[in-house]
Structure formats: structure tokens, C-alpha cells
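step=predict obj=Xylulose kinase n=485
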Amino acid sequence: MAGGADSCFLGFDFSTQQLKVIAVDGNLEVIVQSSVQFDSELPEFRTRGGVHIHDDKLTVTSPALMFVKALDVLLEKMRNAGFDFSRVKAISGSGQQHGSVFWRKGARQTLNHLDPQKHLHLQLQECFALQDCPVWMDSSTSDQCQFLEAAVGGAQRLADITGSRAYERFTGSQIAKIYRSKPEEFSETERISLISSFASSLFLGDYAPIDFSDGSGMNLMDIFERRWSQVCLDAAAPQLAERLGDLTPSAAVLGCVSLYYTERFGFAPSCKVVAFTGDNPGSLAGMRLQEGDLAVSLGTSDTVFLWIRDPRPSTEGHIFCNPVDCGAYMALICFKNGSFPRERIRDECAGGSWERFSAALRSTPMGNHGNLGMYFDVMEITPPAAGVHRFNAEGQRVSWFEQDVEIRALLEGQFLAKRVHAEKLGYKILAGTRVLATGGASSNKDILQLWRQKQEHRSPRRSETLQNLSWPSDPHQELKRFTRR
Ligand code: ADP
Ligand code: XUL
């Protein structure tokens, strides 16, 4: 696509807590950034952290219409700030992985004929068979997971096909749950999108295909053949293939923006819509990760991922199709207790201030005098454990730490877990391994200090150098006391 300072490209991120956009020029310089925070800027949806946690504490959803309204608000913010949409050559972006949107029969017609005089959210309010989208934080589908694994011949067999054993948040089990618990809504459903393909559908004015990378997070796709796995589809729900539509490469050009955007905002009719993908695959592409690098994303969730050529799916962690190179893969481990416990402990131990939180990290030594903690505020994914677990230097369980010790224990525990689980999966973290950090908490240099070696930190947002940190001599020993697998 044409480069140069005059061209401009928009990248959107439909994430858990907010909708973000950046505009880059043809030299990849960021020229505009903006965002809409769901909780504070769209209070009518009454979310906390962008989600609704239901009474069972396991079901977690976000309103479909909130994402749509966020796009209305964001584009208007940009227009009011004088952004020239006519310069935009192409749009793409990412979405939180695994979340799903259930479009009601007739929604395609509405998407095809959007009225440029009206807000999107007013036109699409009747378009969803389910008002609330299951999102990646949901862990309510254990029964469906068991059923899916049994249907294909076990957890390892499912991983051999789809790259992962059955996970509660993966879309296949979520669809199976809706099919069984809400049969009317399911039969009213004309198309199921991931959050990413839902976002590209909004720009395209038509249903957009699911891309290979984000499609790998569903337990429904054969990641080696890059097509739906019939045995997995059949285990989830009937006539699923037609409800899911086609799959597409992650960098495919899907078409041009719909008339709605040219007429309402002045986009050029030639502005391309490139497939959206999952936020982690999007980070891999955006960080220009290379083979041998390790990426750590510190967003609402924490993830560790790397580029691999020779995938060996196992019953821990995930293998996704690589969004950049169709012959490659990415391996990923996801930790649900990322930003939320950091924010909780910041509020409890640092008066709500990241600056005081950082000062506590600076004032405590590496290794925290042997004090170690695991903070699973909600049921963790890796490992599947819950609760807060603190141990003193003698390995005895304790019920509290001094505030500064608590802050360091949280961070060291989070990073130890990343390292231990990555090594368990066979990832080699060698002296020369580059560790690249991204996500909201990567703006905090004192958090980045916690990584093990001097590493180059190269995120799209920042370019810093990580300093030394030595780890407790045997992290496996430290962790195996309280991780279940
Ligand atoms: P997501 O894309 O999942 O919505 P982001 O990658 O944008 O999340 O990260 C948002 C998170 O970044 C916030 O929830 C907040 O906890 C964290 N964050 C922002 N600034 C800091 C900071 N200075 N120190 C630590 N964490 C921070
Ligand atoms: C990855 C995962 C999370 C979401 C967060 O498997 O569940 O990282 O993508 O947005």
C-alpha cells in the first residue's frame, strides 16, 4: 500500500475496557491517538472494567451495542478534533479475543443499508439476537468444554486439531452454551462474529469473515488446514458453518468502507478495510516480533507469546495461526489476573497512585526478602487456581504483607508465573532472548524492571531498555507449592 507522509492508516482496538484508535502515516509515525472508555464515557451501559459479571461470578458479558456506540463516539471525537478522514487509505484493527456477537436475522440487510444521517447505535439496536456478548473473561462453560473434548476424542486430540484443549472462554463452548440455554435466540441468529470480525463488519457494511489467527481461539478451526473442523462444529451446535461464514487470511483486504463512512465522515470511497484480528495476534504483528523474541503483553489480561514455526499443541497454552506469515504459528499463554489485581493492590497499598506503586517497587529489593505471593482475584486460566496465596521466606503461608512488600510480591509473582509456565511449555528464555513489552502497564518502567535480564524493550508506544533483575534461584520450586498443574 502507498507510503509517504500524506497517506494515513487507521488502527482500532476493540478491547475489554475501551475502544482505542491510532492513525499512522506512511512512515508508521503515530499522528493521532484517541479512545473511548466504556465505564466512564458510556455509563448508560453500567459496566465495570467494560464488562458485566453475572451473579454466578462465572458468566461475563459486554453489551454488543456498547461497542457500536463507542465507535459512534470515537469517530465523532476525531471529526470534532479536525481529523481529515479523506486521507485514510486503509482501516484495520483488533478485538479482544474469543468474544462473540450474535447477529439477528435481517441484520445483514441493515448493515448493507446504513443511513449516513443517523448514528450506528440507533440503527443497529435491533440487530442482535443476544444483547450481551460472551467475552474472554467468562468461565461458565466447563460442561461444554468436557463435552467438546469427549466428542473429538480427548483434550490432546482437540489440541492437535484446534491448537488448544477446550477452554471455557473459547468461542466454541460459548456457542454451545447459548445453543442449549437460549435456543430461541440461537435460532434467531443469522451470523456469529468474533469481536474482531464484528468490528470489520461495522466498517464494511456487511458481514466480514473471521481471520485465521483470531479463528484459532475458538476450538472450532483446524489450525493446520485453516478451515472449520466439522467434528468440532458438530459438537458445538447444528448448522454452525453457515452461521460462522468463511475464514480469511489475517491481512486480507476485505473491500472498501461502506457508503455510511464516505458520506458521514468524508472517507475516500477507495479506503480499504483489511481484516481485523485478535488483540494478541495484532500485538505480534504491530511489535514486529521475530522468531526467537518473547512478547509480554500487560493489558487487562497478561499474555506471553512468541512466533513459532513448528507447533506442538499441548494441553496447556494455545497455538494460533500466525497473523503475519501463513506458514507460521504463534504460541500464547494467557493470565486472567493482570491489570485488575494490579489496580486493586495499587488502591489498597498505594492510595490509588501508580507513582506510589512504582515508588514501592523501587524501595523493595529484588526477591522481596523471600516473600512471594500469587493473587488470583478471579479463577485463573494458567493455572486454574483462585484466591490469594502469600508465603514468607521460610515458605510458610501468611495472611498479609506490609504494603510495599505486597506490591512487589504481586509483581514478582506475576512475572514468575509467566516465566515458569513459558518454560513448562518448552519456551527457551536465553541470555540473548529479546523480551518485548506492550499493553497499558508497559508504560510503567518500574514494572518493566522486573523482567530477568537486560533486554531491549520495543513496544509501538515506547522504546526503553529493561534493566537487570535477578530471580529467586529456583522459580519452579517457589511456584509448585501453589500451582495445581
Ligand atoms: P486493554 O487493551 O486490555 O483494554 P490496555 O493494554 O490498554 O488494556 O491496558 C490498560 C491497563 O493499563 C489499565 O487497566 C491499567 O491498569 C494499566 N495501566 C495504565 N497505566 C499504568 C501504569 N502507569 N502502571 C501500571 N499499569 C498501568
Ligand atoms: C487471550 C485472551 C485475552 C484477550 C484479552 O487468549 O483471552 O488476552 O484477548 O483481550
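step=describe
The two ends are 47 Å apart (CA to CA).
step=end
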